[in-house]
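Student: Please help interpret what follows.
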Amino acid sequence: MNFIKVFLAAAILIASFSSCSKYAKVMKSKDTEYKLTMADKFYSEKKYRMAQQLYEELYPVYKGTDKFEELYYKDAYCFYYLKEYKDAENFFKGFLEVFPNSSKSEEVDYMHALCFYKQVSKVELDQTNTSKSIGVMQTFINSHPGSSKIKEATEIIDKNRIRLEMKEVRAADLYYKVGQYRAAALCYSNLLGDYPESLNGDLYKLKSLVSYYKFAKLSVVDKQTERFTKVVTEFQDFADRFPQSTHLKEAQEYNNLSLNKIKEIQL
């Protein structure tokens, strides 16, 4: 078993050395046609780093020729396949600027937008790229209404909106957890406004109502009537919006508690 492992490691090392030696030979060549042929060969073999370096060395040679468009196109994809999405984004954008009338423009425009999606962060981190991704995907949809990529672009927008929604939910939950109930109530209310299509709309409304109740309960007596009345108002809105909600009973309980508190204060 150890012999096989050693043999495989040696084989991989030899293959790697051979590949590097071959690449070094190509780089030293003065034959630009040969270099382009080898760049395309490396590209087809998915050796994208080697292909990318050759393509960029050949830019001054082929710029302005009928081969430059394909070279630029493959170079952009090299960065994408290498998962260097920021560079890929810039190269796809550059392609659209240099070849606005290309037959590949719709595909490249989609790839440019896709690169933003590939750069989105985890939910707990900054979501600037998520918002940008929504914007550029929507621009793609508006620019290419008949594209076969509309469905994929729409799905990406939906995924990004869910990601942003989750980010806001975490913020609201944190406010609630640390006892900042008014801030939590406002955040949950904003969620309902920002994501009216969300399947969790009734839950956000309930959490907002509960947060307002806890905020009222902790308030000074002079403010309690006004703030418990806010809970009652929130419940009425809840019942109007979500009459079939599974959370309606719980919301009703907080409404009743608030009405009782108001009566106690007014005695």
About this structure: Confidence is low (pLDDT under 50) at residues 6-18.
